[in-house]
Amino acid sequence: MTATASRSSRVMGRGGQGAFWSELAASWRNPEFWALSSWLEILAKARKSRFGILWLLAPSIVYVYGLGSFFGGMQGRSLSEFAAHIALGAMVFRTVISAVINSANVFSSNFSFIMDGHVRLTDYLMQSLAKAFFDLCMYLPVTILALCMFPDVHLVGLLLAPLALIVIFINGLWMGTVFALVGARYTDLGQLVGNVSIFLFLLTPIIWYPDQLPASSERGQLMRFNPFFHLVTLFRAPVLGEPMSTASIIYVAVMTILGLFLATFLYRRYARFVPLWI
């Protein structure tokens, strides 16, 4: 294993060891590995069930129309109003948390490829993002239906939605990079993130409205410290015409810039150790 790891380190060195952005650009230009493998994995899982890929729509249907009917009624909201709120929020949350959870174990799950010399680690990071993108696509049909039910969708918000998604995926990239490197060193991180994700989902105003926790309360401050709250707000608020504070825009901007710097630093510093850690 030591000899294989040494060989992997030499291969990485020839590509510019730990050069995050150059390796990421190379991965983007060659999507055959990360994009195709992600899609084939989804198809392989779908073929094992009677309803195939339709099962991938089940989580969005349960979240939007199951939880939407229950919690919307508790808050005095009609399903036509609440379905769009929960659909947009759940879509963003699912996309980002999927990228993070997949990335936490992505290096160890691709152990054989890395040990065999495929050590452009950004390919595996892009693989996690590709899976998150396909998860987002599975939410689109239900989300579009929910928006058709909503009485006042803002056209400007719809036009801004793709830009917001780009920002969301950029944040998914740096989060995935950080969690992938830490997860390579500490293999239990994936299970920890999976359990914490339940708390984060409940802390994020997806099945409830943010005005239910004012900023002056301790719970309101905790909610506003949650990055998922600001990412969801950035995407959902313009579409539904909800108020979006300047604080959320500043929070996302600062988080994105600092996160990319952190990911770049950690990748340059620790990427060469991944073959040894796994």
Briefly characterize the structure.
Helix 3 crosses helix 8, helix 5 (79-104) runs antiparallel to helix 10 and helix 8 runs antiparallel to helix 9 (155-185). The chain is built from 14 helices and no strands.
Report on the structure:
GO terms for molecular function: ABC-type transporter activity. The chain has helices at residues 2-14, 20-29, 34-46, 58-74, 79-104, 106-109, 111-115, 122-149, 155-185, 189-203, 218-225, 227-240, 246-270, 274-277. The chain has one domain (54-276). It is built from 14 helices and no strands. With 278 residues, it is mainly α. The N and C termini lie close together (10 Å). Helices cover 77% and strands 0% of the residues.
Key structural traits:
disordered N terminus, 14 helices, 278 residues, mainly alpha, globular
Over all CA atoms, what is the radius of gyration? 20 Å
**Tally of separate helices:** 14
Distance, first to last CA: 10 Å
Order of helices and strands: HHHHHHHHHHHHHH
Low-confidence region ranges: 1-16
Domain ABC-2 type transporter transmembrane: 38-237
Transmembrane segments: 51-71, 83-107, 128-147, 159-182, 189-209, 248-267
Subcellular location: Cell membrane
Protein name: ABC-2 type transporter transmembrane domain-containing protein
